[in-house]
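seq:
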Amino acid sequence: MTDRKTSARTERTAGSERESVPIADPALSRAAIDRVESVLTGGSLADGPEVRAFECEFATYCTTEHAVATSNGTTALHAALEALGVEEGDAVLTSPFSFIASANAIRLAGGTPVFADIDPDTYTLDPDAVERVVTDRDDIVGLLPVHLYGLPAPMPALCEIAAEHDLFVLEDACQAHGAMIDRIRVGGFGDAACFSFYPTKNMTTGEGGMVTTDRDDVAAAVERYVNHGRGADDAGGYDHVELGHNYRMTSLAAAIGRAQLDRLPELNDARRETAAYYDDRLATVPVETPTEPDGYRHVYHQYTIRTDDRDGLEATLADRNIETAIYYDTPIHRQPAYETISTAAASLPRSEQAADAVLSLPVHPTLSEDDRQAVVEAIHDHFSQSESS
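struct:
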């Protein structure tokens, strides 16, 4: 891992140097580079043994029977929904406070996204809101909870609701590699789960995704779907038994992923260490810091605070060359692409309130002690100046 004392970025402006603290910074090791070089010299660049090895190792990590690699997190979601049998007219309940891919995948599979509001403390689906929605409708076939910012959704309660109403459960774990509830890792709570390996995630393959499941039928269906619908006995031939896409992962991506998976506990521990640092030093300023319920292990894909002065604080941090981000300033049901979706008209006040107040701070593993101190000092200075003005 990069030394905390030397990892601060610098950029030149107007002939002088100043430190810049980025919102994300992929932490690639020499081992990842060596594995990529090995794949390059081996000549098997597309789907192949390296991908199979990554799938096996990731399934073992998640303690699931199967893992199927895909080209990115969105294709993982789409392929999983197809494998779970979503059809035209089916409704799938999900969160409106998420990256749009979770809802888009439902539409791409032919279904209709239905939204329930979030818990304002965790930003994940509120089980009571979910229960009300599924009780009121008879067209919902599944739940797609999102483990947002690295915190698991309340899976025990959601799985109980799903069992009561005979619904499938597909976890969107794209931001939660290694997160746990009662020492059980996300990825194995539902019928299937999906992960993303985008560069900003807790582990990366550059671009890539993964579907985990304990169901043999779901794994087989995903394997077919991501490989043009080829039959299991004709993975590289031209026997296409059903409709599918080319959603395969490359061996180059898998090589990076295998090295990243080896380091994931270390990378997550670094994120948690920075989160604890922020928790302690931001306790006296008027911001709400992230929640970690009892029995949950947050892996802090994002360290997201909440403040009534979000825009002002964002500007102050930018002036100090500290990058921040807003995830997400427009809930999915208010996106222009969803104006024609009838279920987007629901009243979801908690999601809309969160969209107006959240701000994510740098929490990636390569932050230096100086970086973290700069973030905290800037926040304290902002609120001190606000009080004195």
